[in-house]
Amino acid sequence: MSKKFETTLITAGRNKKWTHGVVNPPVQRASTIVFDTVAEKNAATMKRQGHTLFYGRRGTETHFAFQEAMVEIEGGAGCALYPCGAAAITNSILSFVEHGDHVLMVDSCYEPTRDFCNIILKKMGIETTYYEPSIGEGIRDLIRPNTKILFTESPGSYTMEVQDVPTLSRIAHEHDIIVMLDNTWAAGVNFSPFEHGVDISIQAATKYIVGHSDVMLGTAVANEKYWPQLREQSYLLGQCVSPDDAYTGLRGLRTLSVRLKQHEQNSLAIAKWLETRPEVDHVRHPALPSCPGHEFFLRDFTGSNGLFSFVMKTSNKHATTALLDTVHHFSMGYSWGGYESLILANEPRSFDTMRTVSNPNFEGTLVRLHIGLENVDDLIADLERGFEAYNATLNG
Fold first, then answer.
1. Any idea which residues bear N6-(pyridoxal phosphate)lysine here (predicted)?
2. CATH, domain range 256-395
């Protein structure tokens, strides 16, 4: 029976073998799984790679329900679970590389991803080359015989560039290179990774899937070709999550569609208001033409969310501090995806270390907002107070 995506979010992972007749799969906590007979133990051992109770680290029915739901939502053949988004990224990469390999990493990647490449992979003898987010066909020039992974993140962290993922995937596959995507911004809802050539779709489920800023959780959904290796290598690396966290992620899926739509509605209203502000040089919201790669957003995405950035016309650390210290409804925090609004700022010189091949060379401060579920008028009034403090400091 065919069904719309909103219905899938409600029904995914609710197989009766996991729910046992109740609406939500129960939280099944277990480290040891016990067997009554040798035959029963041997059967579980043979089937341990599937959704079979074998040992707590392989998962319980709570985990199986969440994994099954993620596969139904994003596609692919299987889903591995991790204690946070960074663990999902690093362990997905580690599952496929070895000494002497080469990784192509988008220059606008999540900062911990860059640190992992520059410190851990380097120590292992694995070289990373960063590439400009809008490189497109030019990625061919960076591919080497030992290139193992092409890592994408679209939109990019902070600067929000939308990548041409289908083109990058097509070229990578011509060279048998694995394509990974940090798909957190789209939450597995607004971008279909496997329809656009991605092999492994990674999310910080901490963000929109959980949606309430109270659980750390990561997911990686792989296609049929790479799922067995991702599954077994991640298991060998000791990756597992608590059943309570898996349950919270599963519960978050049920309201994901309606939350994202409200985040999107609120953020677009504020982004368009910011375009009218004299202090703002430009807004980097993927759904607006001023964002790099907007044409790929229109082609490949089905919607947006609450996370975007804008660039001020000037850079003044004291004025920026005044803005940040004045706003009330916007809190400063290093995550996003919850119901609350957040604000962070980066002065231009910070991109000297955050970027290595495609420094955007902003003259003004970049401010990243996550627009929550508060009333839009209240949020705009809050930002107006912030701009007043900004201007008073700048002109004082």
1. 207
2. 3.90.1150.10
